[in-house]
Specification:
Two copies of one chain form a homodimer. The first copy, chain A, has a six-stranded antiparallel β-sheet with strand order 3-2-1-6-5-4. Chain A is built from 15 helices and six strands. By secondary structure, chain A is of the alpha+beta class.
């Protein structure tokens, strides 16, 4: 074997193409590198796409894709139950080979339309699982007919399973972050008067607001999930406040009130100290977490604490959590008060919108009264003393 | 295509073989499934093995393997620097193809000997990375010469990268668990008189004991790492003890002492409550963690608390942490005392071996006096008030 041949071999060395998989690149870059790899063998494969499934909404969404050339792929989103063929692939846990996509063109489903619009003639669809949990699909497409012969399918299957493992990896990161933050929140709560159920409700209420704001404010799915994940940590700084102040039943003196207020500053300091340990959180995520902890007692009109900032200067995530936190405090029982009826609490939010609260956050929250009540029902107080997870 | 042919195709359906990858199986089972898959195409591949690299010791260890037939593979362990060829593969980040392993037989290195003893004639070795961090190797072996032709190598390369992603997954689980437990320990410590440095030292001291005990007690590498990970959590229950008791400088009354002692019970309760959140920890790991928290104040002669159990009835992990914790308390400065010199603290451990402490744990600890002193040096107290991570 001459040097020239050796050199040529190195150029197409599959291992050097694949080695990018293990750099810090994101999933999209990883898919691109897998497409490049598979095209060395089967140049007629033009696209790899990953669609994720969200079981709470039954929605299948394109998560990411690698597509050859400049052909832009419109993101699609559909209910799984609306696609009979995808549902079948999921239920039977078996891939589907289509070597002629023409029959799909006559189908009316959103999914079939979107897929055939792109001009592909063959497709191979592999369901992804983690244990029994269905995660979504990997789609391979080719612009030629009969592309998915047995040997091609075998090669694509390995790639599909590699992608499956990459997805499991990403999910385990998110799951872990949730687990970490929930555990810390529960521990912090051990000394608090409030129950774990309060934290769960605040978490859900915050998500309602963020989700309803998302479209007009251009918030990403990821941001909404981070709000949901981090909202229960808003009072974590209370762990550092002395019992004498934290557990006092009567009215606080001015000095004690200052100590109590310090929970926002102390909380942010904690997170800053923890930042080394929390290396699994990205700097952006950490910023959101710190903003919630530090600024959830600021008021829209600048009369809150610790910085007396106002309006848009208060980070959105803190404005969201503040509405959720106060609403839940009002509708919960406390040693010194009965729970307010939902109507009365809503009146309070409406009255204080534009002074205490971001008016838009209040309005977006109240768009879903049914959902609010179902959260109150689902996560009601238990009589167990101490914490409840 | 007749039904018979379709049935036959399903039997060797590569996707059904690979679907086991995403069940709850461990890495060994996953390798077996990958070997089965690759043998469908290249029946002469007889073995896949994964070796992990530990950079603190420069040791390469067989982590797991799948080997065809009953041929038992002796585990080997070697310093990476002792194998010139493996070092080269690692440094150049390029796989190595060997289609004739005979030349290896004349080499004297431990690694070459072990590999050729197995009767393999061809091998393909792929280094694993996560970003710039070298993780180890994937080895493929065949008992025939010239097995590693280009198309075989390409197939094996995808498998190697799939294994690389699986390893990254396992590591991220361990990293996460450490991160979670350290963060919680640091938070719990926020109200405590002790510093974060104390927790780090106890962690290292505990690992010395566990490691030195490992051979005679048959402890796994995993157990030793869990001890290291969980030791800093031993006092987590103090988060639930009132300030008045926890922060009291003078002698505790009997009643206060009982409250202080309750940190073991409270700590275990916390972990039990958290167990749902800590779903990333296996039940076995959770048991070890709870034993450390609940029983680290038991004494060998049965005079400790909370259960007054004695001898072997005290879980080993609690006996280990107890020696490490007391030794560090003695050699550290406290408000009420100067740090003891190392010699005096060692005398104390020796005097109390067999009464307060498991004598064997004390002896194994003292085998490494140099290491103990280097840990004291490395993680000495800082003057920053509050916590130190």
């Amino acid at each position: 074997m001459g040097l020239h041949k050796l050199h040529k071999q190195q150029v197409v060395d599959p291992s050097s193409i694949l080695s990018n998989l293990h750099n810090q690149s994101n999933l999209t870059e990883k898919l691109q590198c897998l497409l490049e790899f598979i095209k060395q063998r089967h140049c007629f494969i033009n696209r790899i796409a990953v669609a994720r499934y969200d079981e709470t909404t039954d929605i299948i969404k394109t998560y990411t894709h690698a597509t050859e050339g400049k052909n832009p792929i419109p993101l699609y989103q559909t209910r799984l139950s609306e696609s009979k063929s995808l549902t079948e692939i999921m239920e039977q846990r078996k891939p589907r080979i289509l070597n002629n996509m023409n029959p799909l063109r006559s189908l009316k489903s959103e999914h079939s339309k979107k897929v055939t619009e792109l001009g592909f003639q063959s497709s191979y669809t592999v369901p992804m699982f983690q244990g029994d949990q269905f995660l979504g699909f990997v789609f391979f497409n080719s612009s030629i007919f009969n592309a998915m012969k047995q040997n091609v399918v075998t090669d694509l299957t390995v790639i599909a399973h590699l992608i499956n493992v990459l997805i499991v990896n990403e999910l385990s990161f998110i799951k872990t972050t949730k687990c970490l933050t929930q555990s810390v929140a529960t521990l912090a709560n051990y000394r608090d008067l409030e129950t774990g159920q309060h934290l769960i409700r605040v978490s859900h209420f915050s998500r309602i607001i963020a989700r309803n704001l998302a479209k007009e404010a251009g918030l990403s799915d990821e941001y909404v999930e981070l709000i949901f994940t981090f909202a229960p940590l808003h009072d974590i700084g209370k762990i550092a406040v002395a019992d004498a102040v934290l557990c006092k039943c009567g009215k606080l003196t001015d000095e004690e009130f200052i100590m109590m207020q310090s929970h926002t500053t102390q909380g942010r300091e904690m997170i800053e100290k923890l930042q080394n340990n929390l290396e699994l959180l990205s700097p952006q995520s950490c910023e959101i977490l710190k903003n919630i902890i530090y600024s959830h007692h600021e008021k829209w009109d600048g009369t809150g604490y610790p910085d007396k900032i106002s309006g848009d200067a208060i980070p959105l995530e803190a404005r969201i959590t503040s509405v959720a936190d106060v609403f839940d405090a009002l509708t919960s029982k406390r040693i010194y008060k009965d729970p307010w009826p939902v109507d009365k609490a809503i009146d309070y939010l409406m009255e204080k919108r534009g002074s205490q609260f971001d008016a838009n956050c209040v309005l977006k929250f109240l768009e879903n009264r049914d959902e609010i009540e179902s959260i109150i029902d689902k996560f009601h107080e238990t009589y167990e003393p101490g914490i409840t997870i």
